[in-house]
Design brief:
about 40% helix; about 280 residues; 2 domains; single chain; elongated; alpha/beta; two-stranded antiparallel sheet; Helicase, Ruva Protein, domain 3; binds S-adenosylmethionine
């Protein structure tokens, strides 16, 4: 089997199996070897690693992963791609293909079975329509994770990486930064994919923290607080949090907590760092 990752080999496989792209599954296959090599390099994969790939497509990146890793588990929802993957990956005995919706797979169980519960790496050119549930699901599920290296929509990569004061800063930035250190490692234009997506893309590596960078008494409450703060982005925290039904707080309580932190009463959520949200959450 020829290596994929260039337009002509990809077209040959698609024609051989008369494969039709399904828009609903966010299918944009990589056809640029430089981008593939860059992703693999940035994911820092070694022969010790067990890698989970989400959405292998026709197996383009899976071939690279299989060469570098000890073991690869590839989870693909589209049953029409399974015979193709069995073909394109037939040379590798270290790849397991699972035909399932990744959001329904018990990744903890998989990490236990395949890697004895040791931290795994996730590498993927993600289907963009479910980026946030996939990333948040992985981070919140307590799966032992070393890193997540993923292709996402450029705008989403920016949101994950931003800090206070930026228009892209929000609940996703804070959630990602609580669990991991995000670094955008490449920007990828639409012509590196087949078919071309309508948006720019970026590869972001999330290196997971062994321990969160801030101490929080009640994680769930902090994230409820963060969500409420950004639900009403233009409101001051005193008004936004004081009105949020989910929190059961009075405006006076919020104002007093902000004052004890030395923050102005008219401050908005978008100005607070993760450390400040943690402190506010602990105070409230
Ligand atoms: N990895 C391939 C590549 O880079 O060429 C394909 C990437 S494509 C952007 C996304 C892949 O995710 C598609 O193969 C699609 O069928 C698959 N996919 C979409 N939704 C999925 C889900 N819920 N669970 C697992 N795979 C999914």
């Amino acid at each position: 089997m020829a290596t994929l990752g260039n337009p002509s080999n990809t077209i040959e496989i698609l024609q051989k199996y008369q494969f039709h792209f399904q828009k609903k599954y966010g299918q944009n296959f990589l056809i640029d070897t430089h981008v593939l090599e860059k992703i693999i390099r940035e994911a820092q994969i070694t022969k010790e690693d067990c890698v989970i790939e989400i959405g292998p497509g026709i197996g383009t990146m899976t071939q690279y992963l299989a060469e570098q890793a000890r073991e690869v588990v590839a989870i693909e929802i589209d049953k029409n791609l399974i015979p193709i993957l069995q073909d394109t990956l037939s040379a590798y005995d270290n790849v397991t293909i699972i035909n399932e919706d990744v959001l329904k797979v018990d990744i903890n169980k998989l990490a236990e079975e395949k890697n004895g519960g040791r931290p795994i790496k996730v590498v993927a050119n993600l289907p963009y329509y479910i980026t946030t549930p996939i990333v948040m699901g992985l981070l919140e599920s307590r799966v032992p994770l070393d890193s997540i290296t993923i292709m996402v929509q450029k705008e989403v990569a920016d949101r994950m990486q931003e800090g206070p004061g930026s228009k892209d800063y929000g609940a996703l930035s804070l959630a990602v930064q609580y669990y991991a250190k995000p670094e955008i490692v490449a920007n990828v234009p639409p012509n590196c994919f087949m078919p071309r997506p309508n948006v720019g893309s970026a590869v972001i590596r999330l290196t997971c923290h062994e321990k969160p960078p801030v101490e929080v008494k009640n994680e769930k409450f902090m994230f409820d607080l963060i969500r409420a703060s950004f639900n009403q982005r233009r409101k001051t925290l005193v008004n936004g949090l004081g009105n949020a039904a989910s929190l059961n707080l009075t405006k006076e309580q919020v104002a007093a907590a902000l004052e004890s932190m030395g923050l102005p009463p008219a401050i908005r959520g978008e100005a607070l760092s993760l450390e400040q949200f943690a402190e506010l959450s602990n105070l409230l």
